[in-house]
Amino acid sequence: MREKKACRYCGSEMKASAVLCPTCNSYQDRWRSLLLYLASAAGFLALLASAATFIFSQLVDLEKRLNWKDEVDVIFFESGIDPYNYNVVLANRGDGPVFVSDLLLNVLGGNAVFRINAKINSNDFFVVDKVRSFPEGYESFVSSTSGAPTRKLVENSNIIFESKPCFLIVVFSASATDVKRMDDHYKSSGRRLVSQPADVTLRFHGARKADQQEVQVPAVATFVRNTTDRCRNVSID
Questions:
Q1: How many Cβ atoms sit within 10 Å of the Cβ of residue 20?
Q2: Alpha carbon of 149 to those of 82, 143, 156, 210: distances in Å?
């Protein structure tokens, strides 16, 4: 009987009953060697996949850092009869949360600040709904045949109600449907809604930028008559 045999892989001499070569640590049965090889290959592939996942996540994060954007849209805005009442719908379309401080309104030499002071997460909305409706509906807004504000109208108007103007300035975002509906309402009687462009600025801070950021909002200034006795006979001509 043979007491020795040669390793099928390295040729080293070993006991005839040996299953594992003491020299190269190779199993003499092919199926055992194949299993060992497959196990090693699977471990290597798992390590490779883990490394690829890590590298991909790092590249995605780097791309996001390089192309990071803070973007807030004003979907709708409407000022009320004083700076404390307003309607606004904001959408955060940026890559991270933002803190919106306020809306700054400038029109006819006057200004007002509408405080918001709210955090808006990415892909989220923020809504303020304080203005319900004007007492006299659309008829409370000033209209004329030309639709242009006159000097007398401007002199008797103010955005701050506390100053007791005879005409209060009410501002809408340019996309507000109320502006078009009022125009259509007045056209039926040969008039036009009196309006002029207004400057509205949304101010906010992003999560990655310390500086305040601003968004200019297209807006339209309209005029509402004060119904107090002293203003009833004030003409806009």
A1: 14
A2: 21, 9, 11, 41
Give the model confidence (pLDDT) of 42-73 as tens digits: 677 777 778 778 777 776 666 666 778 899 99
Residue 156, token pair as written in the block: 């008797």
Question: What pLDDT is stored for residue 2 in this prediction?
Answer: 58
Furthest-apart CA atoms within the chain: distance in Å: 131
Residue type for 222, please?
T
Mapped onto helix, strand or coil, the DSSP state of residue 63 is helix
SS3 225: strand
- CA distance readout (Å), 49 to 33, 44, 58: 24, 9, 14
Location of structure tokens 């092919």:
30
Q: Residue 22: what are its φ and ψ, rounded to 5°? A: -70, -15
Which tokens sit at 73?
């849209």
How many residues in the chain? 237
Tell me which long-range contacts 206-211 makes (C-beta under 8 A, separation of at least 24).
206/70, 206/94, 206/96, 206/98, 207/70, 207/96, 207/97, 207/98, 208/68, 208/70, 208/96, 209/70
Which own/partner contact pairs does 133-138 have at CB distance under 8 Å and 24+ positions apart? 134/81, 134/170, 134/224, 135/227, 136/227, 138/181, 138/182, 138/185, 138/186
- The predicted model scores a pTM of 0.68
- In this structure, the number of other CB atoms found within 10 A of the CB of residue 23 comes to 13
Instruction: Of 224, 226, 82, give the one whose Cα is nearest residue 142.
Output: 224
